[in-house]
Amino acid sequence: MSVSPVICIDGPSGAGKGTLSRQLAQGLNWHLLDSGALYRAVGVACQRAGVALEAANEVAAIASVLDVDFRATDEGITVWMAKEDVTADIRSEAGGLCASRVALHPEVRELLLTKQREWACAPGLVADGRDMGTVVFPAAPLKIFLTASAEARAERRFHQLQGTGGNVSLPRLLADIKDRDARDVSRKASPLMPAPDAVLIDSTSLTVEEVVQRVRGLASIRGIASDTTD
Ligand code: C5P
Questions:
Q1: What is the C-alpha separation between 111 and 87, in angstroms, rounded?
Q2: At 227, which helix (H) or strand (E)?
Q3: Is residue 226, in this structure, part of any structural domain at all?
Q4: What is the CB neighbour count within 10 angstroms for residue 93?
Q5: Is residue 103 lining ligand 1, measured as CB closer than 6 Å?
Q6: Angle at the Cα of 200 (from 196 to 201), degrees rounded to 5?
Q7: What is the CATH classification number for the domain harbouring 182?
Q8: Is the pTM of this model over 0.85?
């Protein structure tokens, strides 16, 4: 399907996909697709337009004209919608919950498919999401399914948000994570599941560096990218 190599990183919320994908893309000097940010952008755009997240046709209409742009800054990647920096809204817990509700609609997933595939260009792409290996890039030469226990994921998110001075509760985060997991796994359109040829990595008791090294090693063994430390 795609000529440029793609490494797919799928798995549930908070398993560490974002950090792993960023570090891989940086180390390899490849493009990075944060597909969750696209669903989050649709959710935020719907809320701003006063569209009910359950209204499939109206949500799809918003998704079809979505004007989203990613910009690299010294602080990381910022997300812009129609010339406005919406990074904070998109990254919030509420943004994640909205995303998982708009992601239920097959019409919306279909509309975002082409947008996501356009990211696969030279020298290569690291694609972070839920259905990268199963639906978006089924021919990718390396697919990782990254998991961790719900408790470990909630705790990581808790420390992350505490670091930004946010007012958060661990039980609430755990409940939200379980809520999103249930929606992602049980939806009819592209449910969250490992591709048959995905390599499963449980990051509960691994450091970020250990996970990155493992994936770089696999990429090297498969001849996709050399295993030099950058
Ligand atoms: O990865 P992130 O937490 O940003 O994703 C937010 C939500 O968007 C997920 O909980 C999931 O419902 C949805 N999503 C999806 N397919 C993707 C990426 C994200 O359904 N490829």
A1: 22
A2: none
A3: no
A4: 16
A5: yes
A6: 165
A7: 3.40.50.300
A8: yes
Q: What is the CA(99)–ligand 1 centre distance, in A?
A: 6
For residue 69, report the distance from its CA to the centre of ligand 1, in Å. 17
Q: Which of 130, 135, 143 to mutate to test the pocket of ligand 1 (most atoms within 8 A of CB)?
A: 130
DSSP secondary structure, 2-38, as one string: -SS-EEEEE-STTSSHHHHHHHHHHHHT-EEEEHHHH
Structure tokens given for 195:
């591709």
Strand partners, 71: 78
Is 149 a domain residue?
A: yes
What DSSP assignment string belongs to 133-147? IIII-TT-SEEEEEE
Nearest to 108 by CA among 82, 137, 74, 131: 131
For residue 17, being part of any structural domain is answered with: yes
CA of 192 to the centre of ligand 1 (A): 9
Domain assignment of residue 178, given as a range = 6-220
Tell whether 66 is covered by a domain. Answer: yes
Residue bearing the CA closest to ligand 1, atom 2:
36
Q: Alpha carbon 10 to chain centroid distance? A: 7
Residue nearest atom 4 of ligand 1, based on CA coordinates: 36
- CA nearest 197: which of 150, 119, 137, 148? 137
What single DSSP character describes residue 198?
Answer: P
Residues 121-166 have pLDDT tens digits of: 999 999 999 999 999 999 999 999 999 999 999 999 898 888 777 6
| Residue-wise pLDDT tens digits, 170-187 | 999 999 999 989 988 998
